[in-house]
Amino acid sequence: MASGDTGVTVCSDALLMLGAKAISSFNEGTDESSICDRLYPDVRDSSLVMYPWSFNTKKVQLAQLLTAPTSVWKYAYQLPGDKLANPRAVYNSSSVGAPVQKEWEIQGDQLLTNLTAVYIDYQYGIAEFAMPQYFIQFLKYMVAWHVAEPITEQREKAIYWQQIAVGVTAQNGRGGYFRTAANIDGQSQPSRVIEDYSLIAVRG
Fold first, then answer.
1. 169: alpha, beta or left, given left = phi > 0 and alpha = psi -120 to 50?
2. Which of 1, 75, 94, 123 is deepest in the core (most CB within 10 A)?
3. Residue 15, CB-side half-sphere exposure with 13 Å CA sphere
4. How wide is the angle at C-alpha 52 spanned by C-alphas 134 and 74, nearest 5°?
5. How many CB atoms lie within 10 A of CB 157?
6. What confidence tier does 187 reach under pLDDT thresholds 50, 70, 90?
């Protein structure tokens, strides 16, 4: 784990990579702190859900709500309050088996279905000190990419750090240090397909 790391230390290291001044807090009143304060939470959370990282994925059974949905579905289940995105997979049992693909839908903070029991794999937000070092390093590159242009006013630096973080455009967000971090993370996990990342698709 990356003991001692915080959002401020991640952003400070990213700023140093850009040749800018480090920060000691997000509210110190400098341009650097204001930009990081505004952009960092989205970059962090987007990075946490761009791949099924082992360290922020868990399986839980959802609680069935007493009020039935006013739709074609029979049951409504409450999604976890700490989720960062929609479930990675939905199951009808805690036993090992294939996920349920079509018998449910998400509406707001609820999962609607005809299933009488629902288990999900989902990703949640965690503090920086609980993140493994390979992800912290990846996160620093991601921050450097996204703050480079507003900090330095140089588009070329943003492109450079984008390539360091996720590779060239032809790699569709699957290259750079991301691939290294995903490979390290996957060493003790089943084989996974590296999925698309919406923020990269927009910025790339």
1. alpha
2. 123
3. 25
4. 155
5. 19
6. confident
Which stretches within 19-175 are classed as H helix?
A: 31-49, 133-152, 155-166
As to burial, measured by CB atoms within 10 angstroms (0-12 exposed, 13-18 middle, 19+ buried), residue 109 is: exposed
Domain positions in the chain: 7-53+127-203, 56-123
- The pLDDT score that the predictor gives to residue 198 is 43
Tell which residue, 28, 26, 35, has the closest CA to residue 8: 26
Both structure tokens of 10: 């991640």
pLDDT at 202 over 50: no
Helix, strand, coil shares of the chain as percentages rounded to 5?
45, 15, 40
Q: How far is CA 31 from CA 4, 36, 50, 132, in A?
A: 24, 9, 28, 29
